[in-house]
Amino acid sequence: MPDSSRMTRRTGLRNAVAAAVALPLLTTAQAAVATRRPRPRLDVMTYNLRFASTEEPNSWAARRPVMRELLRRTSPHVLGTQEGLYRQLLDIEADLAPHYAWIGTGREGGSDDESVAVFYDTRRLAPLAHDTFWLSDTPRVVGSNTWGAMFPRVATWVRFRDLADGGRRFHVLNTHLDHASQYARTRAASLIAERVAAFDPSLPYLVTGDFNAAAHRNEVYDILLGAGLTDTWDTAASRSASYATFHGYAPLTPDGDRIDWILAGPGVEARRASIDTFSLHGRFPSDHLPVRASLTLG
Question: What is the pLDDT averaged over residues 217-236?
Fold first, then answer.
């Protein structure tokens, strides 16, 4: 007669060994599934604030409550601003407190100058490093202007750690190109392309700003897209109706020039892009419309 007890012990041993081998494999498979979980959405906005002036009917005092309502409704994780004056930026920070902070430097090196400040939601993002450079042949010289721009122009970049994405790091560069000189704009675009190319290539990056150039119809756009950036408005899976992003407090222009852009480096997925037409009691927060993008950083 066969030794049934021996056969049972052998079978049990084989099953135990198989189970021991299968358990780490199962754990590895589960870990792989976990790593494939969708990355959290990152909501980004670029917005020319229109500098704070006392001129009516669109003084900062009149526009500030509308700006506050817009930003509280949208709550972007990253907000690249243009034209903000120091006191104006403090007002916005106070209106968004306690969850927002900002980084920026005046374009002429003073506290009363316009800047390209980057606001961020402190519940989501932590800054690791930042810098401001001047759009000129001497980018480290404060207030320098060598390309014939009407004003000195700057770019500010921040490297963030994403607290909701396992400490994922990424760069945001925010800028405002000159409104008068095409030569200054093209030189600035080339410098910005050089700077983003010097970022850690393993990290995603975004470029936000008022470029004072129409998308698809200006050399500035060609230079930046030729450097490997993509226009999130074009690549988004869905988008809002299109308007000229500068309206000057006049009626909006459907399908007009987009001069405010959110650009992205390789691997960034745009889920949705929109041009926000929010107003309150007939008043706009600025003479520009903000551009928004919901992104996944690959």
Answer: 98
Written as six digits, the tokens of 134 are 């001047």
Quote the percentage of the chain above a pLDDT of 70.
88
Please tell me whether the overall predicted TM-score, pTM, comes out greater than 0.85 for this model: yes
- CA-CA distance, 181 to 169, in Å (whole number)? 35
User: What average pLDDT does the segment 133-140 reach?
Assistant: 98
Q: Look at the block and give the residue holding tokens 């008043």.
A: 283
| Mean pLDDT over the full length of the chain | 90
Q: Is 232 helix (H, G, I), strand (E, B) or coil?
A: helix
